[in-house]
Amino acid sequence: DTEVTQTPKHLVMGMTNKKSLKCEQHMGHRAMYWYKQKAKKPPELMFVYSYEKLSINESVPSRFSPECPNSSLLNLHLHALQPEDSALYLCASSQLVSGAPGELFFGEGSRLTVL
Amino acid sequence: SQELEQSPQSLIVQEGKNLTINCTSSKTLYGLYWYKQKYGEGLIFLMMLQKGGEEKSHEKITAKLDEKKQQSSLHITASQPSHAGIYLCGADILGNAGKSTFGDGTTLTVKP
Question: Cα separation of A10 and A27, whole Å?
């Protein structure tokens, strides 16, 4: 069983909808991540939160808006998405080791389809 | 060029056979991680290697880190259908502060 929980598992939305992906971890990890993964590709980093502060934004379009309400929760707010944004969205957490991510613990992902 | 090169891209083996997957970094590694992913699911952490010459095993999977070559290998002994999936190497690389870098993955099929 994964200790990083993501909801929903599947999401279908239109291009004008507003939705959110949620992620929760109770391992006391200080860093949380959002990744986007397309079929047959490795995960691509989108955002990193370290100690509840946004530390990395990989030039992600503003239609994706991350939020870290506390050290256990991470949200990804979605608005006016495009069909090419359809992908598996993965949340991960890690302890941070001397500023480096260390081993990542992933959730099972949210499969997003944009119509 | 890619910072983490993984090979082979895909592998089909008969059940019971041994296999090896390689991961080579073009830059200095601080840590090397192996993950397994089933299609459409999250990545599962397998093993972490940090020191040159380090070797770790879990059940029938062994991973080694050759620090001089900036290379790691993942070896599966007596493969089983349960080993099938996508294996990805990930790394903390000098100059990529705060980010993990991933190889492209190796898709393993084990034929019964």
Answer: 24
Query: Scanning the structure block, which residue is given the tokens 């080791």?
Result: A97
Do B98 and A97 lie within an 8 Å CB cutoff?
A: no
If you count residue pairs, one on A and one on B, with CB atoms under 8 Å apart, how many are there?
65
Cα–Cα dist A93/A102, whole Å: 10
Beta bridge partners of B13: B110
Least confident of A52-66, A74-88, A94-108, B31-45: A94-108
Do residues A91 and A74 make contact, with C-beta atoms less than 8 angstroms apart? yes
Q: Mind telling me how many Å the CA of A26 is from chain B's nearest CA?
A: 17
| H or E stretch at B29 | strand B29-37
Q: Which two tokens stand for residue B103?
A: 């190889």
Handedness of CA B71, B49, A44, A42 (dihedral sign): positive
What's the rounded Cα separation, in Å, for the pair B15 and A18? 47
Contact indicator for B15, B112 with CB cutoff of 8 Å: yes
DSSP assignment, residue B81?
A: G
Mutate to test the interface with B, among A103, A111, A113 (most CBs of B within 10 A): A103
Coil, helix or strand for A83?
Answer: helix
Collapsed DSSP state (helix, strand, coil) of residue B46: strand
Instruction: Say whether pLDDT at A1 is over 60.
Output: no
Contact between A48 and B48 using a beta-carbon 8 Å cutoff: no
